[in-house]
Amino acid sequence: MRYVSTRGQAPVLNFQEAMLSGLARDGGLYLPETVPALDGIESLDGLSYEEVAFRVIRPFTGDSFTDEELRGAIDRAYARISHAARAPLVQLAPGHHLLELFHGPTLAFKDFAMQLIAQLFQIALRRSGERITIVGATSGDTGSAAIEAFRGIDNVDVFIMYPHGRVSEVQRRQMTTPAAENVHALAVTGHFDDCQARLKDLFNDHVFRDEVGLAGVNSINWARVVAQIVYYVTACASLGMRQTDFCVPTGNFGDIFAGSVARRMGLPVRRLIVATNQNDILHRALTTGDYRVGEVVPSISPSMDIQVSSNFERALYLAYGQDAGAIRQLMEELKAGGFSISQGALETLREEFRSGRVCEDETLATIARIRNTTGEVLCPHSAIGVAVAERHLEPGVPMVTLATAHPAKFPDAVARATGLRPPLPPHMEGLFDLPERVTRVENDVDALKSLIRERRTR
Ligand SMILES: *Cc1c(COP(=O)(O)O)cnc(C)c1O
Questions:
Q1: What is the mean pLDDT of residues 78-96?
Q2: pLDDT attached to residue 25
Q3: Of 24, 37, 242, 297, which residue is 20 to 30 A from 152 by alpha carbon distance?
Q4: DSSP assignment, residue 284?
Q5: By the 8 A CB rule, do 133 and 211 touch?
Q6: 78-106 b/e with 16+ CB inside 10 Å = b?
Q7: Per-residue pLDDT reduced to its tens digit, 28-53
Q8: pLDDT at 329
Q9: Residues with catalytic annotation?
Q10: Each residue's pLDDT tens digit, 174-221
Q11: Closest-lying ligand 1 atom to the alpha carbon of residue 379
Q12: pLDDT value of residue 393
């Protein structure tokens, strides 16, 4: 399996190389040259999550890992998800199901990918003896998932930038309380988009990149996308492999893009519905064809407070018929604020994707209403998914909404909606008593470089 960059000017890599590098050297994102078909789709129901994961991921890894290594990594990764089904599907209403992706150690879907890639990094780095520096940008959940997954891994330092004052207290504490010396939480003055822009600056400085062995685990990392395909497959298997719609609370377009890959592998994924909060660049782009960056307005669903949606570049690349030159042109225009999607590409995108936006009041009302009608307590991101999904329900076509985080991760919003503070699950009790460790840093690439050089273990 060979991986190519969406901008066409970076070396072609194998799975392990694409995983370890994250962002391509030409600023693009890696994609497989062709998407493999999933064999034996009809006989997956009743298999363990781990077994389905092995069958889904195996065709993507090529000769980067042996079967035994991959199985071992999958088993260690998912043993840390506390629910026996790993990603249980519960019914909300006739024809509407909720895929609970929040039973991992940091209570968000990001554990599914991060736990697995930490195990794969461990295998690859033990083999090569290399030492690397992971730098990530987070609106909250990626950072906590990365720190939790990589804290015990050899040969890795992890630096996570988050926007100071703009993550929930639970998210912050999950990043600042682990005592392991190889993890470093950095509170950056600015928004998530500033953190993401500085991350791209670091990766685009090739001298620095090679000096510290920079690696990325943001949602642009292809290995994360691959891990996220698995729960689309288990959900379809539970529903009897019928044509199914999926509604996905979306920020950086990583989770929903995994659904698009699942579809290309032959899964009966009919429509993928992008659910956004008031930071609705994707909804606007799909509605009007104009992808234009606005101001980030902080919301009660902070993990989706994003204007530049990085993984959308992959969908654009496919919609433009894998024309890397066209993507380079669009990304150049994006630097000046935005671009218009060509008519042909827009039609292709609209065949696959639908979208909707939910305001703050409707998010709160949805949390309250779903609790009253089902007993299920939603986090604000999942509530946005449910509200958009309800607008797109069609008789005879099951709808699956992805529940991306546990309500206890966003207790203030849930308390505002329901009057009740959802308790943390038992494995996280004590989070509020542990000492915090964090470094404040300016939104400045040189300040970041010096800090990373100084702190990393050698
Ligand atoms: C990261 C995150 C999202 C957005 O996922 P993307 O892959 O960035 O689109 C939605 N909800 C929660 C809770 C998240 O942590």
A1: 97
A2: 87
A3: 24
A4: H
A5: no
A6: beebeeeebbbbeebeeebbbbbbbbbbb
A7: 999 999 999 999 999 999 999 999 99
A8: 98
A9: 110
A10: 999 999 999 999 999 998 889 989 998 998 899 999 999 999 898 889
A11: 13
A12: 98
Distance 127 CA to ligand 1 centre (A): 32
Q: Which atom of ligand 1 is nearest to the CA of 139?
A: 1
Instruction: Please report the pLDDT score of residue 11 as a whole number.
Output: 96
Q: How far is the CA of 139 from the centre of ligand 1 (A)?
A: 9
With a cut of 90, say whether residue 327 has pLDDT above it. Answer: yes
Residue 177 CA to ligand 1 center (angstroms) comes to 22
Sequence-distant (6+) residues with CB within 8 A of 231 are: 86, 87, 99, 101, 109, 112, 402
Instruction: Output the pLDDT for position 22.
Output: 82
> Contact 379/102 with Cβ under 8 angstroms?
yes
180 C-alpha vs ligand 1 centroid, how far in Å? 26
106, 228, 252, best to mutate for ligand 1 pocket (most atoms within 8 Å of CB): 252
236 — pLDDT class (breaks 50, 70, 90):
very high
Give, for ligand 1, the residue of 195, 225, 304, 378 to mutate: max count of ligand atoms closer than 8 Å to Cβ.
304
Task: Round to whole Å and give the CA distance between 169 and 54.
Answer: 35
| CA angle at 456 for the pair 450 and 458, rounded to the nearest 5° | 125
CB 62 within 8 A of CB 83: no
Q: 157 pairs with which residues across the strands? A: 133
Ligand 1 first shell, C-beta below 6 A: 108, 110, 141, 219, 249-255, 303-304, 381, 404-405
Q: Give the span between the Cα atoms of 101 and 379, in whole angstroms.
A: 12
Q: 39: exposed, middle or buried (C-beta count within 10 Å: 0-12, 13-18, 19+)?
A: exposed
Q: Which residue from 109, 174, 220, 308 has its CB within 8 A of the most atoms of ligand 1, so it is best to mutate?
A: 109
Whether the per-residue pLDDT at 425 is higher than 80: the answer is yes
**How remote is the CA of residue 404 from the centroid of ligand 1, in Å?**
7
Ligand 1 centroid–CA 263 distance in Å is: 20
pLDDT band at 328 (very low <50, low <70, confident <90, very high): very high
Cβ-contact 289, 340 below 8 angstroms: yes
Write out pLDDT tens, residues 97-154.
Answer: 999 999 999 999 999 999 999 999 999 999 999 999 999 999 878 999 999 999 989 8
Name which residue sits closest to atom 1 of ligand 1, judged by CA: 303
Q: Which residue has the tokens 């690349």?
A: 317
**Token pair of 63 as six digits:** 């000769």
Domains of the chain (ranges, CATH numbers): 89-104+222-418 (3.40.50.1100)
Is beta strand 96-100 parallel, antiparallel or unpaired with respect to 89-93?
antiparallel
Which atom of ligand 1 is closest in space to residue 228's alpha carbon? 7
